[in-house]
């Protein structure tokens, strides 16, 4: 599997361009800004799906342009689906930060915990991880037994930190429960690709992250 990170927009949100490394189609995760940069990274390949890990403006800002350019279906967890089309605090939240009108189209598919998204030879499982938003998700890609799993964690988990929970729809206790129940049990070698900042691993976060669940 190939996962190319594009750090986009004023909040340096990570957009992930994912493919199976065998000539299969592309999955876009969180196209937050700079659609021309994303299209250049896609390089004319077929985009099979656009997945949003949650509905905040810095993760959805280029979703409409990418959907129009590629024809790919847009997917988001059902609990965040109603937030996509307006920029108020209980929507994408952009207006509160001066990013008026940063919205996304209506989603083509509502995701649920345990759903699978197949991109060529890559199979990703949806993990519902509410807390940063009610519809926050992570995507777990598990390859051959000899390969480490990959987790696209959105704003649920960062290197050394977690997403904020003081926005509408956020809940700190819920986020802690999501991490404890969905992420902490993953293999320690799991490579984590977050919504902001550098990659990390489950092993590293279990050692150094102050928000990690402790026995």
How would you summarize the topology of this molecule?
Blueprint: E1 2-8, E2 13-19, E3 26-29, H1 35-42, E4 47-51, H2 57-60, H3 63-70, E5 74-77, E6 109-111, E7 116-119, E8 122-128, E9 137-141, E10 150-154, H4 172-183, E11 191-194, E12 200-201, H5 202-208
Parallel strand pairs: 3-4, 4-5, 5-6, 10-11
Antiparallel strand pairs: 1-2, 2-3, 7-8, 8-9, 9-10, 11-12
Q: Overview of this structure, please?
A:
With 215 residues, the chain is an alpha/beta fold. It has a single domain, classed as Metallo-beta-lactamase, Chain A, CATH 3.60.15.10. The chain is built from five helices and twelve strands. Strand 11 and strand 12 form a beta hairpin. The longest helix is centred in the last third of the chain and has 12 residues. It is globular, with a radius of gyration of 16 Å. The mean pLDDT is 96.
């Amino acid at each position: 599997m190939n996962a190319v990170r594009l750090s986009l927009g004023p909040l340096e949100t990570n957009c992930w361009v994912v493919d199976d490394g065998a000539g299969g189609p592309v999955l876009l995760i969180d196209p937050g800004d700079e659609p021309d940069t994303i299209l250049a990274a896609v390089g004319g390949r077929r985009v099979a799906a656009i997945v949003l890990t949650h509905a905040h403006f810095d993760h959805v800002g280029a979703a409409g342009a990418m959907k129009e350019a590629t024809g790919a279906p847009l997917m988001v967890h059902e609990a965040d689906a109603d937030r996509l089309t307006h920029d108020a605090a209980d929507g994408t939240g952009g207006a509160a930060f001066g990013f008026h009108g940063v919205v996304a189209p209506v989603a083509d598919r509502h995701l649920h915990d345990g759903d699978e998204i197949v991109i060529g030879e890559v199979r990703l499982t949806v993990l519902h991880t509410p807390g940063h938003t009610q519809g926050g998700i992570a995507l777990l890609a598990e390859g051959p037994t000899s390969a480490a799993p990959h987790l696209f964690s959105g704003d649920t988990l960062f290197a050394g930190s977690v997403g904020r929970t003081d926005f509408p729809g956020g809940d700190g206790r819920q986020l802690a429960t999501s991490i404890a129940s969905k992420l902490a049990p993953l293999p320690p070698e799991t490579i984590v690709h977050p919504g902001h900042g550098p990659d990390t691993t489950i092993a590293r976060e279990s050692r150094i992250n102050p928000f990690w669940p402790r026995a």
